[in-house]
Structure prediction request, 61 residues.
Amino acid sequence: MNATKRLANYIAQQHISPERVAKDTGVAMEKLVPETDEILKADEFLELCLYLGIRPEDMGE
Prediction:
């Protein structure tokens, strides 16, 4: 599973609104849902980790 899907799954499991995350971070909502086929850019990934209060290395395999 790639980092985009890991973050999307985390958001869903924590019952965090992808709409709210998208609005607050500027990351497209399509990248924030578990069924996404999109890929986060590195800056988006880091922005989301900061926003969610998680360490980027915790989203590794």
About this structure: Residues 3-13 form the longest helix (11 residues). The chain has three helices and no strands.
